[in-house]
Amino acid sequence: MAAHSAGILLYRLDGKGGVSALIAHMGGPFWASKDEGAWSIPKGELDPDEPAVDAAKREFREELGVDAPDVDYAELGTFGYASGKRVTVFVGDGAAFAASDPDFVFGEFEMEWPPRSGKTASFPEVDRAEWMPLERAAELVVKGQRPALERLAELLAEAR
Q1: Are 33 and 114 in contact (CB under 8 A)?
Q2: TM segments (predicted)?
């Protein structure tokens, strides 16, 4: 069975018609020198029987070290990757969160590094998180998440 993840896509309007999204650069040695396709919506795997929105909030906290903002979240949709993995994305207005300028404390994971060395090293799950224009974010996130950013842009355009 393919993995199923959930994540939170925060956006903010700039007052001039522009939209920014909060995305995170994946941590660890495989992503260190990559930019395009190395960013992600803060997300992670659902536990069995866990509501997707709860998993999205938990993973936001685990990856960024701060609680997801207390805003209304709408389910944007479930998007599939070529690998078969699926991610359910919840969207929320992050304007107040952006204004609070939170101090991120990135979660860590362990893996064998260097490969086949028998040694274990710790790496941040993400090594930075940034607000960036929606169009730029769509260029940088992993390919499977681009439809979520496109859907957000469509919904905001319809609301105008």
Answers
A1: no
A2: none
Looking at residue 1, its pLDDT comes to 63
* Count: domains in the chain: 1
Q: What is the DSSP string of 101-160?
A: -------EEEEESSTTSS-EEEEESEEEEEEEEHHHHHHHB-GGGHHHHHHHHHHHHHH-
- Residue bearing tokens 């609680």: 67
- Residues 10-19 have pLDDT tens digits of 999 987 889 9
Which element (helix H / strand E) includes 96? helix 95-100
Q: Residues near 131 by Cβ (< 8 Å), separated by ≥ 6?
A: 12, 20, 21, 22, 98
Pairing of strands 74-80, 86-93: antiparallel
User: CB of 104 within 8 A of CB of 65?
Assistant: yes
Q: What's the CATH number where 64 sits?
A: 3.90.79.10
Share of the chain above pLDDT 90, in %: 84
Q: Is pLDDT at 5 greater than 90 in this prediction?
A: yes
Domain encompassing residue 57: 4-159
29 pLDDT above the threshold of 80: yes
For strands 4-13 and 86-93, give the pairing: parallel
